[in-house]
Write a structure and sequence with these properties.
By secondary structure, the chain is α/β, with parallel strands linked by helices. It has a 10-stranded mixed β-sheet with strand order 7-6-5-4-3-2-1-8-9-10. It is globular. The model has no long low-confidence stretch (mean pLDDT 87).
């Protein structure tokens, strides 16, 4: 995200803080509840979770639904579109191709999260040719022995490397700087000692940034692989040197902010972001209901990607417009609850990326002076 884009996001939050509703900044689309990998820390490695997903997402939505939502989002003033799956976005490649193209056709910034194993030559060239903005590839280690073990499918690492190298080829061939390639790396006991090598790998393969993510307790196997408090302390000690290595290689990481934020306590602790002695906009724990709309694979929309359909924080979208949902009763009620510090149960399992984003926004907003009471309608 550029500084101009970040500034626009803060301006919209400041508008809300002054009681003036602003349009959503970000649209997140979670397209498909299927995946070709079996990462030990993901619900897709659990047969019970797969059965649960098949019940709540019984069929795939038509491509036209997503194209309509993107057109409405652009008309509302959405500037940033995140495409990710409740599984792997590229599992249905033709649909994904159409949606990725529409994001750029509507003039919005596109951000794709993928496991990187399903790219083909035509799709890679299209993304470069269209100037798609950013692709985050899930890579957990700089070698196949650790990465493939974490991802549960042999050959995964080699497919990712081939895709990355083809992106580099087409960017050079077409004279393009886009898409920007980055990595998402889940920190575990398996890969803790590989971070320096991963930074060098990124530099050698044209990767511009690495986002390190703490491991959450999604599956039973996670508990044994989460870094201990001692290991986090060791990482805090090593982080300055790792950041220096990354900087010298031209690779941006989130290590400094990550280790400064007590990441071992991110999960089930989102209420730590509350400012209980205060009330008003800057005292809340989560700004998502004022910034983003998240579309689920079954056509509901929510201010939080963790909320399921039919819940109190999700509105039906198949027969309604995005604009109506943004100003409607569901989003208004969620905003009210955030202002009253009345968090949902799902808030306690907030993922690290959202936690960190909210913590950063809270810090930036706190630098300003007092504000008027906020309104919650859209």
């Amino acid at each position: 995200m550029s500084l101009d884009q970040h500034g626009e996001m803060l301006r919209r939050l400041n508008s809300w803080s002054q009681g003036v509703p602003a349009p959503p900044w970000k649209l997140q689309i979670r397209m498909v509840p299927v995946c070709n990998l079996k990462c030990f820390y993901c619900g897709y490695s659990n047969e019970g979770h797969l059965a649960h997903l098949s019940r709540i997402y019984p069929k795939r939505l038509p491509t036209e639904f997503y194209l309509r939502v993107l057109r409405e989002a652009a008309a509302m003033g959405v500037r940033y579109v995140q495409l990710l799956g409740d599984g792997e976005v590229l599992a249905y490649k033709d649909q994904a191709r159409a949606v990725l193209q529409e994001v750029k056709r509507q003039g919005m910034t596109g951000w794709l999260v993928t496991n990187g194993t399903l790219f083909d030559e035509g799709l890679i060239r299209m993304l470069v040719d269209d100037g798609f903005d950013e692709i985050k590839i899930s890579l957990d280690a700089p070698s196949p022995d650790i990465h493939d073990r974490m991802r549960g499918v042999p050959g995964t690492f080699d497919r990712i490397v081939r895709a990355i190298d083809r992106f580099r080829f087409w960017k050079e061939e077409l004279g393009s700087l886009s898409p920007r390639l980055g990595l998402h790396t889940v920190l575990t006991r398996m890969n803790r000692e590989t971070l320096s090598r991963l930074i060098r790998f990124a530099s050698e393969h044209g990767i511009e940034d690495i986002t390190f993510l703490p491991l959450s307790d999604i599956t039973q196997a996670c508990a044994a692989q989460r870094l201990s408090a001692e290991q986090w302390e060791s990482l805090r000690h090593d982080a300055p040197q790792l950041v220096r290595e990354a900087t010298s290689c031209g690779v941006v990481t989130n290590l400094s902010s990550l280790v400064a934020g007590s990441p071992e306590y991110f999960f089930n602790q989102v209420d730590h972001l509350l400012t209980p002695e205060e009330r008003g906009f800057r005292s809340i724990a989560c700004f998502q209901p004022f910034l983003m709309m998240g579309v689920t694979p079954d056509g509901f929309v929510s201010p939080c990607p963790l909320m399921e359909k039919g819940g109190e924080a999700a509105a039906p979208l198949l027969d309604d417009s995005l604009e109506h949902a943004w100003s409607g009763s569901v989003f208004t009620e969620v905003r009210r609850r955030m202002l009253e510090h009345n968090l949902f149960g799902k808030c306690k399992t907030c993922c690290a990326s959202i936690f960190l984003e909210n913590a950063g926004l809270k810090e930036e907003l706190s630098r300003a002076g007092p504000v008027a009471a906020v309104g919650v309608t859209g």
